[in-house]
Amino acid sequence: MFFTRKNLSRVFGMEELGILLVLLAFVAIVALIKPVFISEANLINILRASAFPFIIAIAMTFVFIGGQFDLSVGPIVALGGIVAGMMVIAGVPVPIAVAATIATGAFIGFLSGFLVAVFSIPALIVTLGMLYAVRGVVLIITQAQPVYPLPPAFTILGQGTLYSIPYPVVIGVVLALIGHFVLAHTTYGRNIYAMGGNKETARLAGIKITRLTISVFMLTGAAAALSGLLSAARFSSATSNAGTGMELLVIASVIIGGTSLFGGSGSILGTAIGTLMMTVIKNAMVILRIDVYWQDLVVGVVIIAAVGLDQLRRRRAGI
Question: How many CB atoms lie within 10 A of CB 285?
């Protein structure tokens, strides 16, 4: 049986339990005010809206656990949609277009990781520069014009469903399971935790810090490009302003989920809960007819609160 003392102790000992209870309480309160909030259609909308940032947040969890930082994912989302859109319109088979798009995102991540790992430039500076550079490339390619119409063979990736569950959600869940397994049960995952906990100690232990750093940035680049092409498929159009502000949403989701901003701790489960929290808050504000301009204020407050709680937790733990 599930309700054994061992299983209950494991559940109540979860680091993610606190934010999960907050999420459930928030959902319950909004549902009491507006029952339509927990309707099947709205829950599907929440899951669909969560999928696009969640795919990136999975990879960002690896970056944060490794003690790094990436601000460049927003423009890579736009580039992913543009590259995939242009390729399928030109007649490139969808599987090849998808693979090439993901590879493009990974290459941008490689450039960021290389500059950070080899030249010791702070990740904040490198990825901030990459944010502007990639957005500039997108605008040059498109001249700020949308790429459309996209063929049905491509748009089904964003619009199709599996037993009423949108494909982006299915893809996000599969990637989350893979990400959890890698972090919890592989040498690569353990090395990322070690690098984030103490880079010099990890280096002395024989961990290839340079390769590992580059690899986590490649993950976020690939994930952002994948999210971008799925978003373009969802809306049947790729636009140059896609992904605007996505980096802040993703970072907030990861931090709220309990991943430390300073490296060495975190989980995919926490990131999933954090992403749902951010999406639920935005959806609830719409359902409750709260002015849309308050959303950015709420996100900002939540980010500050999450970082503050992380600092408090680290101090109590003596880190």
Answer: 16
